User: Which sequence fits this backbone?
């Protein structure tokens, strides 16, 4: 029942994104600003109606795919023990995408709206939420730190996600703080590289320590 409630709430969030886009459509300029550079300046536009509805379309397609994936997971990689966490994160992603759309629309209507500050704060919060749930995700093919080494060992998976949880939380805090500094670009690049490289390298290290490598000479 809890899983069903989370799914229903997620679908309601998608419906809200369409309603919000429809409400804003009459007020937004044509073309609609849809891209901002690292300095928060508009450098991309999309004509109506796509400029208004492109995010609801992406949101709907992404969330529906996420809702279907647990049903088609191969044996041995099912999420029965963590479906609540999975569907909760799916809801978080749906809410985040709705939030991004609201940021875009407000930035299009208000030149004083700092898009980058709000986006980086939102992404930072998303990282923190994901980090808090990483250790609760069992081994699977589509959620978590999926490397050849984590997928081949339950112990490597667990240890990698335990470290990665802290990596994501610290990265999220760094992004939220950087949103109010002049070093956004440097911190953003550092965070992206760190959150990508550290879990991968650590999973390799843990696998080598536990399993070792057999090299035929």
Assistant:
């Amino acid at each position: 029942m809890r899983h069903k409630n989370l799914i229903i709430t997620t679908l309601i969030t998608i419906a809200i994104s369409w309603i919000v886009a429809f409400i804003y459509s009459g007020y937004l300029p044509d073309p609609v600003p849809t891209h901002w550079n690292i300095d928060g300046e508009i450098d991309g536009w999309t004509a109506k109606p796509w400029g208004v509805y492109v995010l609801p379309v992406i949101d709907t397609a992404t969330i529906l795919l996420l809702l279907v994936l647990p049903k088609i997971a191969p044996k041995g990689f099912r999420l029965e023990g963590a479906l609540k966490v999975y569907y909760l994160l799916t809801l978080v992603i749906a809410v985040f995408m709705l939030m991004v759309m609201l940021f875009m629309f407000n930035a299009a209507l208000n030149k004083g709206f700092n898009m980058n500050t709000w986006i980086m704060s939102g992404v930072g919060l998303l990282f923190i939420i994901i980090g808090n749930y990483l250790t609760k995700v069992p081994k699977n093919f589509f959620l978590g730190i999926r490397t050849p080494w984590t997928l081949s060992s339950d112990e490597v998976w667990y240890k990698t996600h335990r470290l990665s949880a802290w990596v994501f939380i610290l990265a999220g805090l760094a992004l939220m703080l950087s949103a109010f500094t002049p070093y956004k670009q440097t911190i953003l690049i550092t965070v992206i590289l760190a959150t990508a490289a550290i879990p991968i390298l650590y999973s390799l290290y843990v696998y080598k320590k536990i399993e070792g490598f057999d090299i035929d000479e």
